[in-house]
Amino acid sequence: MESLSQGLVADVLLRLHREAEAVDAPLMQAMGETTDQQGAISHFIESETRDLAWVYRGLADNFLNVSPEEMIGATL
Q: Residue 63: which residues within 8 A CB-CB, separation 6 or more?
């Protein structure tokens, strides 16, 4: 039995994934509205260079969102 894809662990992981998607939705929407992806990446890197702590404090409430499929695939 694959413990990450079945049973209680799978239920908890699914709930956590849904919560992460909900919390990250505004950030993902803002990123999706950017028409100049290269410019946005450059701006982000410049911001990190100026004040790394400030940038990541602003992202502290967000999650590193990994899809359930990626989690299961990584364990096989």
A: 20, 23, 24
